[in-house]
């Protein structure tokens, strides 16, 4: 049975959630967790999952609290781990520090934990309350949960388009459809994801660097991924030239091919995967490989054919749609190529999850309808 929640639990758990959110994009393959330790109404220790996933939030908060942790309450955004991995169990650290009460936001679906952490705490005489800010905590770690439960990263498609769904003029001009504030928020999305993916058509047309350029977050550039059926990306591209500093993967089905030597000499990792029915890299195989590399959150920036492939495969979990107040007309290039669905009841469907104004532009976020 869940222990009684006091009036301060919501405030302290929200504090822990703010700490946890700071780790998005840099803690994979681990979840982003926050921990706040409170004694007599005063915060005596704080911690969050460190870069690369270790150390965990709880031991960092306990180290800051020191002796003040004895008899205190620990607020943790995810059930404390109960297994020996690269670090000792966080449950053991909490019990050893003499924490009297632990408030947990959401249960950890990892089969190595999955309720065992809470059970261990209670068996050790620690009072436990669960389900405080549960929805917020689950949303924060949706990528980690999705990887555990579905075996693939959470996939978000990003669109920057006109009001009529166009990403470029008929001549291909696309810089810049959206304004400065929208582009800055797009950079923040990059920083909060573990990997960013584009198709080779976008790579060849735009020669992007796919880095995070927000001041202070330049070190948060995610793993870069290119879908390249015939291995056309060259060693002179910005992606290849910077691969020694920012990990870069190219998925292909080509054998023996074109620019592989030049790419690998630059530090690009070329990965061959199974073909889909159209002869392109099979997205399910790409996502499974990324999950095996610890990726939990994948941002897909296009182009139109790549967006369509994820939508056709029911592999798009979220959409981030940036709309600029302009009309490009029928001759403009669409943000999504033709989809396979022929009837309304077959098309991909989403529900609005949020919206915000970014200067003259509008960002609307969607989650897949389940």
User: pLDDT average, as an integer?
Assistant: 92
Which class do the helix and strand fractions yield?
alpha/beta
The helicity comes to 25-40%
- Number of DSSP helical runs: 12
**Straight-line N-to-C gap:** 29 Å
What does this protein structure show overall?
There is one protein chain. With 370 residues, the protein is an alpha/beta fold. It has 12 helices and 16 strands. Helix 3 (90-96) packs parallel to helix 4 (116-123). The two termini are 29 Å apart.
Outline the secondary-structure elements:
Blueprint: H1 9-21, E1 34-39, E2 42-48, H2 57-65, E3 73-76, H3 90-96, E4 101-104, H4 116-123, E5 127-130, H5 134-140, H6 142-150, E6 154-162, E7 166-168, H7 180-191, E8 195-199, H8 200-206, E9 223-227, H9 238-241, E10 248-252, H10 260-266, E11 269-272, H11 283-292, E12 297-300, H12 304-312, E13 318-324, E14 333-334, E15 350-358, E16 361-368
Parallel strand pairs: 3-4, 4-5, 6-12, 6-13, 8-9, 8-12, 9-10, 10-11
Antiparallel strand pairs: 1-2, 1-3, 7-14, 13-16, 15-16
């Amino acid at each position: 049975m869940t222990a009684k929640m006091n009036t301060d639990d919501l405030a302290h758990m929200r504090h822990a959630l703010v700490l946890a959110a700071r780790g998005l994009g840099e803690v994979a393959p681990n979840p982003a967790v926050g921990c706040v330790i409170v004694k007599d109404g005063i915060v005596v220790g704080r911690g969050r999952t460190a870069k690369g996933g270790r150390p965990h939030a709880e031991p960092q908060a306990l180290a800051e609290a020191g002796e003040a942790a004895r008899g205190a309450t620990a607020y943790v955004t995810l059930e404390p781990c109960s297994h020996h991995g690269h670090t000792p169990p966080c449950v053991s650290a909490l019990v050893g520090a003499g924490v009297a009460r632990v408030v947990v936001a959401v249960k950890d679906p990892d089969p190595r934990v999955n309720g065992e952490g809470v059970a261990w705490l209670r068996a050790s005489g620690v009072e436990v309350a669960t389900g405080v800010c549960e929805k917020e905590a689950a949303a924060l770690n949706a990528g980690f949960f999705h990887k555990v439960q579905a075996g693939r990263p959470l996939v978000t498609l990003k669109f920057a388009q006109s009001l009529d769904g166009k990403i470029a003029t008929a001549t291909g001009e696309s810089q810049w459809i959206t304004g400065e504030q929208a582009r800055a928020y797009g950079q923040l999305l990059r920083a909060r994801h573990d990997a960013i993916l584009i198709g080779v058509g976008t790579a060849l047309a735009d020669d992007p660097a796919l880095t995070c350029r927000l001041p202070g977050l330049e070190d948060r550039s995610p793993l870069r991924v290119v879908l390249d059926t015939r291995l056309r990306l060259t060693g002179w591209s910005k992606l290849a030239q910077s691969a020694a500093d920012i990990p870069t993967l190219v998925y292909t089905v080509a054998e023996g091919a074109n620019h592989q030597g030049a790419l690998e000499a630059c530090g690009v990792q070329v990965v061959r995967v199974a073909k889909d029915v159209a002869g392109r890299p099979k997205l399910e195989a790409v996502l499974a490989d990324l999950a095996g590399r610890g990726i939990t959150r994948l941002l897909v920036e296009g182009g139109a054919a790549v967006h369509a492939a994820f939508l056709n495969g029911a592999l798009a979990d979220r959409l981030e749609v940036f709309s600029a107040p302009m009309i490009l007309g029928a001759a403009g290039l669409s943000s999504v190529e033709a989809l396979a669905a022929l009837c309304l009841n077959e098309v991909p469907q989403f529900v609005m999850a949020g919206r915000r104004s970014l200067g003259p532009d509008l960002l609307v976020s969607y989650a897949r309808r389940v």
